């Protein structure tokens, strides 16, 4: 019997909704069978907590007297440059922005102790942030300089807006060269010294809805400890990526753009993060509820780590030089044992996505739904699926010499 | 027999004296140097694992202290800020001595400070910077 989101919301209101996390549902379906479980279960909650570089926050700081037009000028938050190419007092701070005087990789590997991700974390934590701005001055916005403390509680708007989050699967990174390399997948030791990965696997939102049958534009989600929404497909969304026979992508595939009011989020779920030799970013907590509208949809949520394969990619050569060659494939059950075998060598593994935090997010979202404080939304439009033919293209570089 | 990991801070004036040699010769202690560092303009620092009878150990420590060496217990030197740790597990393959372990039940990362030799690799390798070095 097919359900509708409206019916599920009625059950949430009445307090008799049945919710499991994407981890719990595996055994529930094993015990009850798909048909019976699909009748009984209303929602499956997912979660992920990992570094997501295409994250940002936009703020409206309110007008000073005399007025200043930050647009076209320069604005810094705790010395980190914010984007000002908007109207007078709207600014955007990106997770990977860093202070002009940060030494970066001048002495390699750089430390990258503080950047936009850390500003967002401190803002959410309610800390005062130092704003320094210079502008060119106009008749209607005469002021040219502004130095002030700002605090999230005083801002008109503070909105988290992440243009690419929640990657549906990701590379496993290794280093085949003979020297240590410093990447966004962490410190990779020479000659297959270690392998790093970054996905919540069987708990990851898009791996539980591989064909985007329920997750679409307007889907209400757990975002950074508060409530957010799917705004669009994320950048680099690649639904046509290689998949297994059961539809699970074996490479980085779908992505989500998400948005939500930063004022109700928490620094516990938005953590400023540093990658030595690489840069700064923001670790973001996301949880997506999957309404069990059919047996088919429930079936997808029972995916287990041993059914999710990822490509092992050499970050010393193949990745930087955009080569499609891979070292091999491995599944998340193997990765999570702490050791995998590559080319006959035992290689220790570690993760950048926190599975224990993903469990916590899926559990929190489950509680929100059970307690009636979180209702599901019907997406207003789908994100492009396999049938769209959308692919992720490399840059077509063209000479600018005429 | 006891075995302890300690950190010795040598003031500049003591850097050229063979103090630890006397731990073997006069106090019958066994040691394993886990880390040693002396820079011309700075103090010396040595991380030792010291083994021997309690009585000899106490005498050896007394000898070093009286000579002017400042001694800390090693476990106080690298610690984990539990609030910042996200249990991602990135530290596990960074640490050369295996001081981080994944708990397969909770999927959380354990810090076994007994195995830590204060090399400091985890400090910058930890994405949320939860590992803190205290000297």
What does this 3D model show about the protein?
The complex is a heterodimer of chains A (402) and B (135). Chain A has seven helices and 26 strands. In chain A, strands 3, 4, 7, 10, 16, 17, 18, 19 and 20 form a nine-stranded antiparallel sheet that branches. A four-stranded antiparallel sheet of chain A has the order 6-5-8-9. Chain A has 402 residues and is α+β, with helices and mostly antiparallel strands. In chain A, 15% of the residues lie in helices and 30% in strands. Chain A has a domain at 56-160. Chain B has 135 residues and is of the alpha+beta class. Chain B has two domains: 2-76, Alpha-Beta Plaits, CATH 3.30.70.260; 78-133, Alpha-Beta Plaits, CATH 3.30.70.20. In chain B, the strands form three sheets. Chain B has a four-stranded antiparallel sheet. Chain B is elongated and about 50 Å long. In chain B, 35% of the residues are buried. The mean pLDDT of chain B is 89. At the A-B interface, strand 3, strand 19, strand 25 and helix 7 of A face loops of B.
Protein structure class of chain A? alpha+beta
Greatest interface and its participating residue counts: A-B, 33 and 19 residues
Annotated CATH architecture of the largest domain in chain B: 2-Layer Sandwich
Helix content of chain B: 10-25%
**Termini separation of chain B:** 28 Å
Counting DSSP H or I runs of 4 or more residues, the number of helices of chain B is: 3
In terms of topology, how is this protein built?
The complex is a heterodimer of chains A (402) and B (135).
Chain A lengths: L4 H10 L4 E3 L2 H9 L1 H7 L2 E3 L2 E4 L4 E5 L13 E4 L2 E3 L7 E5 L21 H9 L4 E6 L10 E6 L6 E9 L6 E3 L6 E3 L2 E3 L6 E3 L18 E2 L2 E4 L2 E8 L22 E6 L8 E6 L3 E9 L1 E3 L3 H7 L7 E6 L13 E4 H4 L3 E4 L2 E7 L3 H16 L10 E2 L20
Parallel strand pairs in A: 1-2, 11-22, 14-25
Antiparallel strand pairs in A: 2-21, 3-20, 4-7, 4-10, 5-6, 5-8, 8-9, 10-18, 12-13, 15-26, 16-17, 16-20, 17-18, 19-20, 22-23, 24-25
Helix pairs in contact in A: 2-3
Chain B lengths: L1 E9 L8 H7 L4 E9 L5 E9 L1 H14 L2 E4 L4 E3 L19 E3 L6 E3 L9 H5 L5 E3 L2
Antiparallel strand pairs in B: 1-3, 1-4, 2-3, 5-8, 6-7
